[in-house]
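Lecture notes, unit on binding sites. The following record was shown on slide 14. It pairs a sequence with protoporphyrin IX containing FE.
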Amino acid sequence: MRDIAHDIGRDRVAETVAAFYSQVRQHETLSLPFARVHDWPHHLDILTHFWWVTLGGERYLDYSYQVPARHAEAGFTPELLVDWLALFRTTLDTHLPVEQADAWFARAERIGRSLNLLHELGHLHGPATPKAHRLQ
Ligand code: HEM
């Protein structure tokens, strides 16, 4: 059985991720935490890879994700997650057939629940940790 990544295809994953972050950058609440991102082509590359692998595709970048540390630094809150997920759902619905949008969104919600749990346990509260060395 084909995984959802190959069903959607890498180009469509990349297009969807790019469309999402172009909306994020104009969003009332989400644009603030994302102002810390200065290298947008790099961010889009690593987020496209993140989703490709999360949806079942094979790795093609050598990058160590530091998801809890990055979100602690970015000032993650459950309220921002609500906005993030709502915008993500709209983007998926615009770019994908409903079955693919549902499957992708279910994974985003699951990761969102993990981020909320880390936040509740105090692992995503400041102060910001030093920037970890990035592998690429
Ligand atoms: C389920 C929802 C979310 C997922 C799946 C997600 C996923 C990711 C991933 C994989 C990265 C790259 C981490 C790395 O470079 O090691 C990232 C970076 C980032 N995320 Fe999220 N995220 C989510 C929600 C949020 C929310 C609600 C915020 C609001 C604060 C946020 C803000 C950021 C920022 C600002 C970065 C860039 C950090 C940097 O490079 O310094 N994310 N996210």
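Take-home: The longest helix spans residues 98-120.
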